[in-house]
Amino acid sequence: MKVGLISLGCPKNLVDSEVMLGLAQQAGHELIQDASQADVLVVNTCAFIDSAKQESINTILEMARHKKDGACQRLIVTGCLAERYREELKAEMPEIDAVLGTGEVPDIVRAIGGGSPAAFVSPLTFFTGAGAPPPAAPPRPQALPTYIYDADTPRLLATPKHYAYVKIAEGCDYKCAFCIIPTLRGHYRSRPAASIVQEARALAARGVKELLLISQDTTFYGIDRQERGALARLLRELNTIDGLEWIRLLYLYPTTIDDGTLAAMAEGDKVCKYIDLPLQHASNQVLKRMKRPGTRQRYDQLLTRIRSRVPGVALRTTFIVGFPGESEADLNELRGFVSDHAFDHVGVFTYSHEEGTSAHSFEDDVPPRIKTGRRNRLMGLQKRLVAKRNRQRVGDRVRAVVDGPSADHELVLRARLASQAPEIDASVYLTDCDPSDYRPGDFVEVEIVGARDYDLIARPITVL
After folding, report:
1. CA distance linking residue 344 with residue 318, whole number of Å
2. Which of 195, 113, 209, 181 is nearest to 149 (CA)?
3. Per-residue pLDDT for the chain (464 aa), expressed as one digit of tens each?
4. What is the model's pTM?
5. Strands 2-7 and 455-463, how do they pair?
6. Cβ distance 210 to 245 under 8 Å?
7. What is the CA radius of gyration of the chain?
8. Which of 3, 13, 98, 342 is most buried, with most CB under 10 Å away?
9. 413 has which bridge partners?
10. Which residue pairs, CB below 8 angstroms and at least 24 apart, start in 393-398?
11. Burial of 195 (0-12, 13-18, 19+ CB in 10 A)
């Protein structure tokens, strides 16, 4: 069969997509990118917030048209939306032939072939029409997923050849008021270190130069297995693998960052001095209502400790504005927090009132236009702070990795520093060079010659 797959959502979902592609290829199916030519189409969905659910629904409807107008014979829906609304999807979208939740990734081969995994369930009522919003009532309770892939699982990378995500754990045990992830992904479960190292060695042998370690809480790694200090030990072992240049940690949690992990980051020459730390807010009353375990004071202390333990560290964080009960005073406290700590990268989301979360019992009392305005104000502040710091970097010489040609100009290359993660952070644009002299994955010494808001402009000095 000719199989096409559309992956939506976060890198954790992308890894699941890569595993499904690997399993399909191992089973003898042909993988194609042109949806109009596919015999089987797979949509791996996201359901974290309303906008993600809507994107998933729209994509399913778009792919469903290929059953009428194209070669498609089977439409399979997988991932978080399938985990959350599996029965409803099958009932209200008869074009769907199979629904697989997050714990049923291995069933993709049977689904492609027309088998009957346990996820092909009896229907309930869901959408009232194309693109209609999901129901207010939470979905029927079901068993939590337990699946996680290992080093021997077939996997076909969908990222550029020089970097890859490695999921070191799955699930989450926290009960943040705004988050549905524990229901969609199950309890936290770490992979054995030997499996991760085996996978990392195999990826390096295939030419991968940057590993991005991901999970719902990467610093909780090993704690569920009573293995304190496991992440620091893992980093030190990964740091010895030939061929790897950068090892990057994403999705750290403020209460589980220990000094051992910080020491491994500071001492490992391949471990990027980069911490992705979603803090969500800085007002104590908002954090309490969010059921986050931190306070403004503890966050101040944590960020000071991180900077002292890892000199030159780049800090990335995300915030949610418009949470129920958030006041202008709360937002001003958050703005002051951002000004105080000079984050390198900040993402701001407007609160999404999600059924199935404990915050759904609160009144969603911040109007949408106020949420958007607060987001814009916070992002405007961050843009000004970063632009000022970037201008001060002109003249610095740093190491960068080439990602490929720029979409803006054929004579400009797009690259990143160790302080910039792919897809989510700003870029470095390389000028004054012949793009044909460089390939994606080349490491280059560059001099920063200019700044453009979040992005930096540089010129290559030598290829390392």
Report:
1. 11
2. 195
3. 999 999 999 999 999 999 999 999 999 999 999 999 999 999 999 998 889 999 999 999 999 999 888 889 999 999 999 999 988 998 899 999 999 999 999 999 999 986 544 433 322 222 223 333 343 334 444 678 999 999 999 999 999 999 999 999 999 999 999 999 999 999 999 999 999 999 999 999 999 999 999 999 999 999 999 999 999 999 999 999 999 999 999 999 998 999 999 999 999 999 999 999 999 999 999 999 999 988 999 999 999 999 999 999 999 999 999 999 999 999 999 999 999 999 999 999 999 999 999 999 999 999 999 999 999 999 999 999 999 999 999 999 999 999 999 988 888 999 999 999 999 999 999 999 888 899 999 999 999 999 988 999 999 996 54
4. 0.91
5. unpaired
6. yes
7. 23
8. 98
9. 405, 430
10. 393/448, 393/451, 393/456, 394/448, 394/449, 394/450, 394/451, 395/447, 395/448, 396/447, 396/448, 397/445, 397/446, 397/447, 397/448, 397/461, 398/445, 398/446, 398/448, 398/458
11. middle
Place of tokens 């030190």: 236
Which of these, 445, 416, 258, 261, lies nearest to 345 by C-alpha position? Answer: 416
Q: Residue type at 145?
A: P
Tell me, what amino acid is at 455? D
Tokens standing for 461? 């000095």
Give the residue from 353, 331, 286, 380 showing the smallest Cα distance to 51.
353
Tokens read off for 166: 């490695």
CB neighbourhood size of 311 (10 A) = 8
- Please answer whether residues 30 and 1 qualify as being in contact, where contact means their C-beta atoms are separated by less than 8 angstroms: yes
What's the CA dihedral at 453, 458, 463, 464 to 10 degrees?
-50
| Distant-in-sequence contacts of 102-105, Cβ < 8 A, 24+ apart | 102/16, 102/145, 102/147, 102/184, 102/185, 102/186, 103/144, 103/145, 103/146, 103/147, 103/186, 104/78, 104/145, 104/147, 105/16, 105/19, 105/20, 105/23, 105/78, 105/147, 105/149
Tokens of 134: 């999901």
